[in-house]
Amino acid sequence: MTRSFHPAEVSRRALLAGIAGSAAFLTVPSALLAQAATTNPVFRHGVASGDPDAASVVLWTRVTAEGAVSGTWELSGTPDFAQVLKSGPFATDPGRNHTVKVLANGLAPGGVYYYRFRVGETVSPLGRARTLPEGRLDRLGIALASCSNYAFGYFNAYDAIARDADVDFVLHTGDYIYEYGGEDGWGADVAHRIGRVHAPLHEIVSLADYRTRHAQYKTDAGSQAMHANHTLLACWDDHESANNPWKSGAQNHQPGTEGDWATRRAASIRAYFEWMPVREPEWLAVKGRSRMQFWRGYSFGDLATLQTIETRHTARAKQIEYMDHAESIVDAASAQRFKTDVLGAPDRPILSPECEADLAAALTRSVEQGQPWRVIGCPMVIARVDVPDVVELGLVADPSARLAAAKSKEELARIAADPAVAVAWKGHFNLPDYTDAWGGYPWARERLYELSRKAGAGDLVFLSGDSHSFWANRLADDAGRPTGIEFGTAGISSPGDFVDSGFGPETSRALDRAWAEHIPEVTWTDNMHQGYVRVEFERERGMATFVGVDTVLTPSYRTMVLRRIPFARQEGRTVLT
To answer: How far apart are CA 106 and CA 189, in angstroms?
Structure first.
């Protein structure tokens, strides 16, 4: 798996025409590169692999059928299946929404395998899967992906990941689907324009709803190509269930009209486990875990450990809403009290004790084994992103007069909902950009940093999603001690917040620059593009390549390297170089 870095700048249209290519793509078997979503009537949702260890990997597909159905799966060391190494039967039925998951085991560490499924005479598309390596490893390439919203556009970044042969595994940090719906729901105007209206049309609440939405997302050609080419490492964020959930509810759940939250959450988790290539609890080494306890640990030989975390359902305290406290924030002193006493109140967790214990054990083990890299798959940005004073910087108008003129709490709320007003208000008091990210849980963030220090691992690399922006961040604890670095990815199709809020390209770029220039932990950020991050680890150095796509409005697109940011290990720390 030792390779040099290769640029991956190539257009999909040119590739499909056979007139362009890059060395980085030449090792990908052409049978794995779908030009369009499969028209196979039995396996119309493609195939996928995921959740590997050194000796096994989950293989997934879905059969379009009625009633109970059975078939076989096969695994080979070559795409022509000259020799079948493993095979076995499978059975599925409506109770599992006709999804199929098998655990292919007894495999070699660091192996590359090809797999397929059969029902009668019908054969599924071909898939490629990897197991985790053991022993000496000199290079690892991970594609970081997040926030794929069907309504906002084609999953072109998935297609680009599929064609990127410098990627060994894909880490998806959540918002794999979105729950929104309705004729005027978020993204509906774009969806109607490009013909990607959510199914079902309404917001998803029931098990049948979540199943239908997962099925729709897996008809996207880019999604099918990525899953066929690369093995998935996954965690979830909020939209797999509903916007901003915590342990006992969610911002986007109204019990009066949408029923019991626990029932809805259970339906979303059941559909997720049916439709994703992830291990069932009984397939885990640690027994007695539930599906809700969805975090994983992956060891890549002597090079790296990657630990994903669960931040939404098992422990999270309810997020703080700014509007509930805005009247009490009137000057710098009251803003600081809010940050310290409200946001920073003790015992406002994000991670469960079991997740923390597993994370501490994995980090300790990695340090003891001498692995250079300890990576956290993180659903949300963990850096301190406290908004600078954008009014003083001349980027947005001062909203003070508008706010002061409000004649009622309702009118004040309407004014505050204006994105320019909200960012100006937060900037005036240097408040965190979002209170449902780690910035709204500073006690929990410090607890995580303390856990890592105790494990001897104050040198973490966070790979984060959720924000719809690219990030390169330098991290520190409350005492200013370095804790690691962070790379964050933009959405696969979800739009950047500044652009989506209507600021326009010029102001959005200016806000990006202001974030990098005036927020101490932010080195670089970009909210103008959709795409993914390829993070490559070598023994003492690495490279983060931020890959953008020029459009998500059509399936024809071009990729562009927006930025390459090297990083390294220096004197027991991870640093951006």
So the answer is: 49
Give the integer Cα–Cα distance in Å for 212 and 200.
7
pLDDT tens track for 84-125: 999 999 999 999 999 999 999 999 999 999 999 999 999 999
Query: Edge-to-edge, what's the strand order for the sheet holding 559-570?
Result: 99-104, 57-62, 47-50, 231-234, 169-172, 140-145, 530-537, 541-549, 559-570, 573-576
Contact 540, 572 (CB under 8 A): no
Query: Which of 535, 467, 541, 540 is closest to 169 using CA atoms?
Result: 535
**What six digits make up the tokens of 227?**
């899953």
pLDDT tens digits along 364-379: 999 999 999 999 999 9
Which SS3 state, helix, strand or coil, does residue 26 take? coil
C-beta of residue 296 within 8 angstroms of C-beta of residue 284: no
- Predicted confidence (pLDDT) at residue 255 exceeds the cutoff of 60: yes
Measured on CA atoms in the order 42, 131, 236, 555, is the torsion positive or negative?
negative
550: its two tokens: 């020029």
Distances (CA, A) of 13 to 18, 21, 180, 364, 534: 9, 11, 31, 47, 22
- Whether the bond between 353 and the residue before it is cis, its omega within 30 degrees of 0, is no
Percent of the chain at pLDDT exceeding 70? 94
φ, ψ of residue 60 to 5 degrees: the values are -135, 145
Q: Show the tokens assigned to 143.
A: 């594609």
Of 282, 310, 360, 306, give the one whose Cα is nearest residue 133.
306
State how far the alpha carbon of 140 is from the alpha carbons of 11, 243, 440, 526, in Å.
Answer: 25, 33, 33, 25
Taking every pair of Cα atoms in the chain, the longest distance, rounded to a whole number of angstroms, is 76
- CB contact set of 376 (below 8 Å; sequence gap of 6+): 306, 307, 308, 309, 359, 460, 461, 462, 463
Q: What is the rounded CA–CA span in Å between residue 369 and residue 361?
A: 12
Tokens of 393: 């910087």
CA quadruple 149, 150, 151, 157: dihedral positive or negative?
positive
- Token pair 């399936």 in the structure block, residue: 555
- Tokens 């090079």, residue? 303
E strands of 174-292, at which residues? Answer: 231-234, 245-246, 249-250
Q: What is the mean pLDDT of the chain?
A: 93
Angle at the Cα of 287 from the Cα atoms of 206 and 75, rounded to 5 degrees: 80
Calpha distance 140→156 (Å, rounded): 23
- At position 182, the amino acid (one-letter code) is G
pTM: 0.94
Residue-wise DSSP of 58-104: EEEEE---SS-EEEEEEEESSTT-SSEEEEEEEEE-GGGTTEEEEEE
Average pLDDT for residues 408-422, to the nearest whole number? 89
Mean pLDDT in residue range 554-562:
97
The 10s digit of each residue's pLDDT in 442-495 is: 999 999 999 999 999 999 999 999 999 999 999 999 999 999 999 999 999 999
β 112-119/245-246 pair status: unpaired
Collapsing DSSP to helix, strand or coil, 488 comes out as strand
Q: What percent of the chain has pLDDT over 90?
A: 89
